[in-house]
Amino acid sequence: MSTSTGAAVMSHRPDPAAVWLGILLRQFPELHRELAPSRGARPLGAGRSGRPTAPAAPIRLFVSDTIRDITDGVVELEEAVTEKLRLPRPPRGTVEQRLARLMGLLDEVAARPVLAEHVRGEARRMARRCSLALGDAACPVRVGGRCPHCDSVSLRVFPHRETVLCVNPGCRCAEAECGCRTDAAHRHSWARADWQRLAEATNGDLAELTAAQDAEEPMARPAEVLSAACATEGVSR
Fold first, then answer.
1. Which residues share a beta bridge with 191?
2. 166: which of 40, 188, 216, 226 fits an S-S bond (Cβ 3.0–4.6 Å)?
């Protein structure tokens, strides 16, 4: 691939920050639905004995904490972005309104690499927290290249973790102190900072790893499809 062609491909890739903010925008309302008691829940004090009884669907504290964390995070992120872009302080608004406004600023954010990376990181963190609270699985994305340890075509990118793992359960390396020698559940992994080295060691494509990480599809599929895909890959929730 020529340099000009490669640049064209890169330019047509979705903006990672836009992907994560879009996921968050779609999933955040579901957190409030998770908190709503079921229609069949018995109200407090409805027991025959006259004693207060707990509702059939108690509020999930983890979901409540997640809503508060994301709400605070979105407010702080929008205020930080507008400050860096020298824009007026943003007006009050719902999380959804603030996310929509942030997405409208991404073209300006992209011109500032440090700010763009901060927005991407925060959006990814909050989207991941939201997905975990909703019970979504972190499904792997298959990429090319062979594992440098076992020579198997078993490398997978886990978008939520920003990590490449070898999913071959029989993978063993030459390191005497590596956990693969004593722990059958051990999986060799490479954090995003190590992907350049991994690509060089496997004759793989760094752009493919990055595209798999930033692609929207693994995060945007319905929960039942995610579960089926994870089962196919042999990865549990």
1. 163
2. 188
State the CB neighbour count (10 A cutoff) for residue 98: 20
Residue 211 CB contacts under 8 Å (≥ 6 apart), including other chains: 13
Model confidence pLDDT, tens digit, residues 1-12: 333 433 333 334
Distance between CA atoms of 215 and 220, rounded to whole angstroms? Answer: 9
Q: Report the SS3 class of residue 158.
A: strand
What are phi and psi for residue 157, nearest 5 degrees? -95, 130
Backbone φ, ψ for residue 166 (5° rounding): -90, 120
Closest among 152, 148, 165, 161 to 201, alpha carbons compared: 148
Residue type, 192: R
- Which has the closest alpha carbon to 116: 208, 15, 8, 212? 15
CA atoms within 13 A on the CB side of 6: 7
Say how far apart CA 218 and CA 223 lie, in whole Å.
10
- Compute the CA torsion angle 235, 233, 129, 102 (nearest 10 deg): 170
Spatial neighbors of 191 by CB under 8 A, at least 6 apart, are: 162, 163
**What is the distance, to the nearest Å, from the Cα of residue 7 to the centroid of all Cα atoms in its chain?**
26
Return the closest-CA partner of residue 128 out of 139, 117, 118.
Answer: 139
> Per-residue pLDDT for 217 more than 50?
no
How do residues 46-70 score in pLDDT, each as one tens digit? 444 444 444 434 446 778 888 999 9
Edge-first strand listing for the sheet containing 189-191: 141-142, 155-158, 163-166, 189-191
